Task: structure prediction
Amino acid sequence: MAIAVNTSRFEGVTMAPPDPILGVSEAFRADNSLMKLNLGVGAYRTEELQPYVLNVVKKAENLMLERGENKEYLPIEGLAAFNKVTAELLFGAGNPVIEQQRLATVQGLSGTGSLRLAAALIERYFPGAKVLISSPTWGNHKNIFNDARVPWSEYRYYDPKTVGLDFDGMISDIKAAPEGSFVLLHGCAHNPTGIDPTPEQWEKIADVIQEKNHIPFFDVAYQGFASGSLDADASSVRLFAARGMELLVAQSYSKNLGLYAERIGAINVVCSSADAAARVKSQLKRIARPMYSNPPIHGARIVANVVGDPALFNEWKEEMELMAGRIKNVRQKLFDSLSAKDKCGKDWSFILKQIGMFSFTGLSKVQSENMTNKWHVYMTKDGRISLAGLSLAKCEYLADAIIDSFHCVS
Amino acid sequence: MDPNHMISASATSGSDFGGSVFAHVVQAPEDPILGVTVAYNKDPSPVKLNLGVGAYRTEEGKPLVLNVVRRAEQLLVNDRSRVKEYLPIVGLAEFNKLSAKLMFGADSPAIQERRVTTVQCLSGTGSLRVGAEFLARHHHQRTIYIPQPTWGNHGKIFTLAGLSVKTYRYYDPATRGLNFQGLLEDLSLAPSGAIVLLHACAHNPTGVDPTLQQWEQIRQLIRSKGLLPFFDSAYQGFASGSLDADAQSVRMFVADGGECLAAQSYAKNMGLYGERVGALSIVCKTADVASRVESQVKLVIRPMFSNPPIHGASIVAIILKNRDMYNEWTVELKAMADRIISMRQQLFDALRARGTPGDWSHIIKQIGMFTFTGLNTAQVAFMTKEYHVYMTSDGRISMAGLSSKTVPHLADAIHAAVTRAI
Result:
């Protein structure tokens, strides 16, 4: 028998560090403390800190099972019924971009997969074009663009002094970027900061983007989760579309329909003509085919059933409001606890102003580590906590931890 | 601003006045394989036949969801404790373990020694892509040799992953069998460390597989040249009807203690096509290497899709771990494989009955879902135009799309193409 090579050809492969966000949950699971609290990944929890499968999702799955649908390959661009409802949810049914067929929609693997398709499109058709990402932004954005070989740079966004938006810095940096750059914008509920531009600020952002012939690229992972209203949360995207701009929008149903593990999302490209949209769609398909051939059906069918059925859609809106409402309540309680307990008089009101699942606490890396090491509170090192993982019952404990970390650790 | 106004020439963000930033993006052609179904769907003829994509059809020409799959799904939906939380980046742990056992054998020393890392990926395509991306980043030799011909998507997957693609001779049109000499010669010339793509069984598109003796020679050559095997296993159980027999080639390579990669798909053998269930296994020299390799594979996955879809993998896990369901699966799988074998025989008999010129014995010699008919592009085009028979232009037909009722129509089409078309 021929002897195989004696040393591994992968001997030189080094151990990669754990993912900064998903790795938090791994560490949490390994912790035996009874006080532990997982405020790492943005996955919604009930007040009892249990994962939540929406009732409408259960209903949809039951319907699907009753119908006994087959499991044939979807087309490369995904489930047609899903693509239709996802576009209508985002832009509003009857929106000119849909009516005029200027929209290319391709089902993608949740937000990540949809962003990756877009990144690959940018790399192929806009070689050398940069993507401008906010400072800070979701940790995986830069990985996606790095792997797609798309250069990126940051625009100022978070102002630690005000714990708010550095609007002038943002506008200035967008203006300074080379013409025709892609500007990555969070449609609502900015991750990790929770700080969103006001409608007036959105108008000015659109102005400068148009001035510089940049292309807006929205990441919409929280439609419905920010304010509780699906339409209100889409207003930034619709504002840009209404101006006749071409834009890209990546959508995710992980959070708002609780479909995390089903990996369901879409990449939408608004073009100035139906012809361009058809061509763009064909090229997105060409990118998807050697990556995974065609996307998974299960999550797409759930979304198509929920969003496409008026009764289920209304029920969804109610559940959406409940989830967003619970987070708002938790924000309030956290704020109240911090204000009551903090003897140093720090202004914690930024917690109430921030929107969505996350709060950017302003805690430093070292302080965040103290949260974990001393208080068994798991969060990302950038100071982000997921309020979706917080219960009213735990607010006081968390307040103690934050105050201790903030004032006693430097 | 009126949100309903038509796009005016001066409005948009676009480098041209009124133009699109996407003006230079050209229309991509339809995918050659999946595009066959697109064309088929457009055809209004009542006698149309889709022999394009490799998706199993029943004798009634209908898609099939296995009974055992329906049962597993019922269990999933009824289980109130089930949640939809993100899977780990590497996917469902139980699924990964069971997939490795299915592929390598439950008693495989490589598994027992923890030298195998298995990660859940998006069916065969996704497993190949993730494996190739990992190799492009971490393997010193970035050339991959693929058989001539091979599945149409292979070349694109590897090129986009960053590997450079070369071919080795495989199919011999003269014998409609394996060009074994050519295969050995070409692989002998491959540089040390080069990656070699091998179809574990039921070669796609030709249906021509090496014999076990030939596999052993291939193994010896690959090991002596220090080449790295990368198996594509999309038809385990479908080729012969036996899951173990169809895994022999892969297990032979693992048994010699060497390293290899294997991409597994459950699309066909469990009929889970659209659920996109598959696994990438990397068999390493040591457990320590396997663990480091896994950590790096995670870095490929996270920026591609973060973590894999849960539904299909959960179905597979339920079936594989439950004795009764596993047995039920093997029975349903064998029935599918047997129906295809029967279609081969019927088509062969029908052509003989018509006195169609040529030797058609390859139809019954070839293995798996596909038959490489040997028809040329002109003949294929003729068959599509005149007989509404849809197939890929390389002459590959999916036997899974045939039934006793439609065999005569196909035989007529082939007969006409061979005797009339230029």
About this structure: The longest helix of chain B spans residues 323-354. Chain B touches chain A through 100 residues (CB under 8 Å). The CA atoms of residues 172 and 179 of chain B lie 5 Å apart.
